[in-house]
Specification:
Strand order of the largest sheet: 2-3-4-5-1-7-6
Order of helices and strands: EHEEEEHEE
Shape: elongated
Number of domains: 1
Radius of gyration: 18 Å
Distance between the termini: 12 Å
Number of strands: 7
Length: 110
Amino acid sequence: MLDVFSAAKYNHFQEKKTWEICHNGGFWREDKYVALNGCYKYSNNVTLEQISIISNREAATYYLWNSYFTKETLIKEANDAGFKVCKIFGDVTGSSYQEDNFTIAILLEK
């Protein structure tokens, strides 16, 4: 079982730049930090979420690249890699696939 982001999620993705102060720490650090966030959309169904974390001890940047698929492109990629497609779902819980879902899950066999 594999899950990916869908083309519907890519179409919904918004480019933006934001920042926040996390006074009591948060996801990236236990102590206070500032997070500078940039969301960028590229062609070929790719996005980048760039997060720069600045704390009293260090500064670090994280790059979260995501690829997005249609049902057809996901099936083609799985077949090209030598997998047999057993079933397509809307998510890993087994919900029905719908084109407007933000995820696609695929059950594969090698």
